[in-house]
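Before the break, one more example. Copy the sequence into your notebook; we will annotate it together after we see the structure.
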Amino acid sequence: MGEPWILADGRERVAAYPRPPALVSCARQVRVEAFGALLADTRRSLRVLETFHPPTFYLPPEAMAKAMLRPAAGRSFCEWKGLARYFDVVAADGRVLERAVWQYPEPTPAYAALAGWYALYPGRMEACWLDEERVLPQPGGFYGGWISSELVGPFKGDPLHPELI
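Here is what the structure looks like once it is written out:
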């Protein structure tokens, strides 16, 4: 039997994603552009699947254009993954996307595979793709989910569903 969030037609119903979140490997091509440059490109990512959230993609360090990343001030805490640190994305001409990327340097044991991997806010980037599909960002500037055509909502953060905000 497959995962309970996978529908008969292959789409994924985010309301059925688990809590605590699942960590699932992904071999789809993930590409991210910022300031006209390629920030990330990989076929090896980890998806975090949490109830009512579109997946957040974590990318391995070698997939990132680290020259575009600058450590940023501040931290945040996730009850599942632990303490996150942030990075600014900096363009060659000096433009900056503040705190647009994060990582968990020492995640909790259940999410140890995320150690040192990077996640980002799709809504802050120029464009994000899964294979050849340009994704939409999860509503609400706080979230880092990637909405693609195979997902069935509603999604946390959507103002049309205030019960999920």
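The longest strand covers residues 69-78. The mean pLDDT is 95. Try to locate both features in your own notes.
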